[in-house]
From TrEMBL:
Keyword presence, Lyase: yes
Source organism superkingdom: Bacteria
Signal peptide positions on this chain: none
Coiled-coil annotated spans: none
Domain Aminotransferase class I/classII large: 33-372
The name this protein goes by in its record: cysteine-S-conjugate beta-lyase
Family: Belongs to the class-II pyridoxal-phosphate-dependent aminotransferase family. MalY/PatB cystathionine beta-lyase subfamily.
Length: 377
């Protein structure tokens, strides 16, 4: 059910991921998958385009195609979470939504950003005119967890917002209920806001359980979208989810000119993803489960000194390659026909790491790791 794209198909379908890679280089950087879209999404988008549904979406936060309804059903079926009706506000994409939330819902003061982080987190904090207060993950820690003592120290120094990524890219971790409760309690102590990016939530792999942040902390704010799990990032329709009426009112009062990036086709795609694509998603997670095992075997063969914590969610593996003594393994990989993401983009100053996108065919993954092995030998 998960169909691998050929190289030619991938070049046509994924112009950013594949277009940036020189001929002969295998791209394994940006978070897109080398798979054909879920059939229900293609069918819904094709039908909508066939009907000529290419106009502006209405202004007043409509749920065209039942996007919110579909998400509520998904959250109930997959996570047992009852999302109240009327808690979704549309925005173009998750990164825009996070920035708008920072600008309009979060108290003044520095913003705590755990590192390594998805690089745009740092950019949006700057765009929102805020100072970032970093909490660094010890690269030698057995388990990637949030250093709450460091978060507390930032709150004591005046920070009032925490950007959480749950499940975490690039840690690959699924934060547990006790961890989320501890975050909630700490934020409550300081009157701080927690903004959770849950875009990878449907990509929790067998063995781990996703806990929606808002099911633990109704004062939190979640931004999510169908686009990562269903490989639809070109179809813009992300969701800001707020349970506090004052938040919902404030976020919906943002002038249209500042929040206009969502599209009708994105809403159609989102509804088809959340409502009609469970089987495809299940099959995807089974495929990724096999690929993460393949990755462990391939690393043992070609990069035996690589270190990797268990990949609990996402298809983005965070590899510690410091044992090879190469400061920028992604640059070395590029010289040998693999385009991975440089670790220092996720954690400035951190050497010897890279983030590898494994959502490709088993053959390509094997070739990627073999080439990286040659690059670092
Ligand atoms: C954690 C995280 N948030 C947000 C995004 C981007 O989402 P969007 O394209 O909706 O801005 C990504 C993309 O890889 C991501 O990994």
């Amino acid at each position: 059910m998960i169909r691998d794209l050929t190289d030619a198909e991938a070049r046509a379908a994924l112009p950013l991921k594949w277009g940036r890679a020189p001929e002969g280089t295998i791209p394994a950087w940006v978070a897109e998958m080398d798979y054909a879209p879920a059939p229900a999404i293609s069918a819904a988008v094709n039908a909508a385009a066939g009907r000529g549904m290419l106009g502006y979406p209405p202004f007043d936060h409509p749920m065209v195609g039942g996007l919110e309804e579909a998400f509520r059903g998904f959250a109930e079926r997959h996570w047992g979470w009852e999302v109240p009706a009327g808690s979704t506000t549309l925005t173009g994409d998750v990164i825009t939504g996070m920035r708008l939330v920072l600008e309009h819902l979060c108290p003044p003061g520095p913003v705590v950003v755990p590192l390594p982080c998805y690089p745009p987190f740092r950019t949006i904090v700057a765009l929102a005119g805020r100072e970032a207060a970093y909490v660094e993950l010890d690269p030698d820690a057995q388990t990637a967890t949030l250093d709450l003592a460091a978060v507390r120290a930032h709150f004591e120094a005046g920070a009032r917002t925490l950007l959480l990524c749950s499940p975490h890219n690039p840690w690959g971790r699924v934060l547990t209920r006790p961890e989320l409760e501890a975050v909630r309690d700490l934020a409550a102590e300081f009157g701080a806001r927690v903004v959770a990016d849950e875009i990878h939530a449907p990509l929790v792999l067998p063995g781990s359980t996703f806990v929606p942040y808002l099911s633990v902390d109704p004062d939190g704010i979640v931004v999510t979208s169908h686009t990562k799990s269903f490989n639809t990032p070109g179809l813009k329709a992300a969701q800001i989810i707020t349970l506090r009426p004052d938040d919902t009112e404030a976020i919906r009062s943002i002038p249209f000119e500042a929040n206009h990036g969502y599209t009708g086709l994105g809403m159609v795609a989102g509804a088809a993803a959340w409502r009609d694509s469970d089987l495809w998603l299940l099959t995807l997670r089974q495929r990724l489960d096999v690929l993460r095992e393949d990755l462990a075997d391939l690393l043992a063969t070609h990069l035996p000194q690589a270190r990797m914590r268990p990949l609990e969610a996402t298809y983005l593996a965070w590899l510690d390659l410091r044992a090879y003594g190469v400061a920028d393994p992604a640059a070395a990989g590029l010289d040998h026909g693999v385009m991975a993401a440089a670790g220092h983009d996720y954690h400035p100053g951190l050497e010897g790491h890279l983030r590898l996108n494994i959502a490709t065919s088993a053959d390509r993954l094997a070739e990627i790791v073999r080439r990286l092995g040659v690059a670092l030998a």
